[in-house]
Fold Glycosyltransferase family 2 protein.
Amino acid sequence: MSFSLAVVVPAYNEAQVIGTFHARLAGVLDGIDAACRVIYVDDGSSDETWPMVVALAEEDPRVAALRLSRNFGKEAAMTAGLDTADADAVVVIDADLQDPPELIPELIAQWLDGYDVVYATRGERDGETRTKKFTSAAFYRVMEKLSDTPLPRDTGDFRLLSRRAVEAMRGLRERQRFMKGLFAWIGYPQTSVTYHRDARHAGNTKWNYWRLTNLAIEGITSFSTAPLRMATWLGVSAAGFAFLYGLWVMFKVLLWGDPVRGYPTLMVVILFLGGAQLLALGVIGEYIGRTYAEAKRRPLYYIESRRGGLSCGGDSGK
Ligand code: UDP
Ligand code: MG
């Protein structure tokens, strides 16, 4: 068996764990009979992450390091890694040891069986609050209902991609990168391996509810136009209701005259219609904003420096 394997590790302020992570990963890679390479993508960290990965690149010939010019977010960091990885199989894994590197041989086994995308599905989750579990479960259910491409449930970004799957991913340059959706969208034979997700080894999660909510909106709007449809239906039913109510008011005037009353009904109708209009406008605005962001066609990331055995070789940048 002879193939090449690249492991892409996005890292943002992971100085506390990156050493431990690399030791565990290196142990796993030692046991794999393949030409291995690890690509650390430092997503503009403000702590010691970059010097640490540079040191790793000097110690271990398998390690290559990329530093992005600022914090572009995990999705861009992963994309930078995938763009650089030139291997038969590419694994994407978090640096915080929540995804066990020990699972990589199992992912490879499925890939050798002919699957192009092998994603790791979380079994139980440690170290996550009940609300976090509940909201994430609810999100997957809603996405499943709304989206045109079915999204595998309870998967993170930990997965293995074949060469052609990586090439397919490289072709997707949209800015609103909801990676889980994109991985599913490319198609090809896909399968999963279940594992137990540990609590973070050290450091803090970079996701708070604000970022998670934004990710959910991103996921829904980039994979479904259902909200636009919902806005339309809300508009149609509000208009229909208003029309019927108007008829009823007219009849009332004709039959019983018009005593000056009806302030409450007036307010209710105005407020309801105003709310419905603002909601529909907001939904449309979301999509227009996205179209605008895509239309600018900006690059997804910039690389500030590279270290270690990448194709360009040596150092570029500061
Ligand atoms: N990450 C990144 N850029 C960011 C945020 C996170 O590269 O802006 C990396 C982070 O270093 C880690 C992975 O993405 O390797 C997952 O991040 P985190 O553990 O914060 O997310 P969670 O596991 O809670 O989903
Ligand atoms: Mg994590």
In short: The first strand starts at residue 4 and ends at 11. Residues 11 and 92 are 11 Å apart (CA to CA). Residues 94, 96, 98, 200, 205 surround magnesium ion (ligand 2) (CB under 6 Å). Strands lie at 4-11, 35-42, 63-68, 89-92, 117-125, 155-162, 190-197, 303-308.
